[in-house]
Amino acid sequence: MLASDPSPWLAVFGRAHPVLLHLPIGLLVGAATLEFGVVLLRRTPPRGAVGALLLVGALTALASVGSGLVLAGERGGGANLSTHKFAAFAQTALMLLAALAAWRDRRTPLRVLLAAALVAMTVAGHTGGAMVHGRDFLLAPLQPTPVAATPPPAPASAYATLIAPILERTCAKCHRPDKDKGGLVLSTADGLRAGGDTGPTYVPGKPDDSLLLTRILLPIGHDDHMPPNDEPQPTAAELATLRLWIAAGAPFD
After folding, report:
1. Measured between alpha carbons, how far is 121 from 131 in angstroms, rounded to an integer?
2. Closest alpha carbon to 87 in 116, 67, 55
3. What is 63-102 written as a DSSP string?
4. Would the pTM of this model clear 0.85, i.e. be above it?
5. Considering Cα of 208, then 233, then 135, then 146, what sign does the dihedral take?
6. pLDDT at position 1 over 50
7. Do β-strands 175-176 and 179-180 pair in parallel, antiparallel, or remain unpaired?
């Protein structure tokens, strides 16, 4: 391992994000249930329990934010990443302030902070889910299925019959319009032509200068190897097909 390689323990900490993020969520909901429940029951607020839940929740939220930053540095994120980060930071800060306010006699500031933290938690959870499952995952079952006239069949291109299925199987999970890691979309011809944050995806006629191939051909343990080693990898035949397509000028017609 090179000296500049990140610590494997740090990588494990980042990948523990899905585990850690549920702790502050549960503690925040528990604190809110206790605090707002006494309003309905007209009982004395349990300051100690509410304060302890919020304090522990804020500390676990800090751990969750830290692991999330490490994971984002390793794998990147889509268009929702900035909103997800902001909401997570806001939830953590609001929980810390609420933990301090829980010991005061006046309960209004605490309840305002709790309500705001619940809103931030909802936004963070929704955007986090959208990064993993896609932007329309939550409401997709409610969307009507569009009925369109069937167009006449068009002649199939080499890209549609050979290249698109390879990219769909190995790349589209992380590089699609609703989850464009690295600003790159590989599930559409337009996205493939546009390239990503690191530049053009391919150089027509020059497969050895094309990132699409050079990233795949890196050793599977290399930090820049794509797809990630826990995702489906192109076969030797698929690599040969991609090379021939780029060498032929990467035609889409």
Report:
1. 15
2. 116
3. HHHHHHHHHHHHH---TTHHHHHHHHHHHHHHHHHHHHHT
4. no
5. positive
6. no
7. antiparallel
pLDDT in tens, 49-89: 888 999 999 999 999 998 888 888 776 666 678 888 898 99
Interatomic CA distance for residues 58 and 64, integer angstroms = 10
Tokens 């676990």 found at: 60
Are residues 72 and 81 in contact, defined by beta-carbon separation less than 8 angstroms? yes
pLDDT digits (tens, 9 = 90+) for 209-228: 988 888 888 888 888 888 88
C-alpha pair distances (Å), 37 with each of 33, 43, 46:
5, 8, 10
CA-only gyration radius of the chain, Å: 24
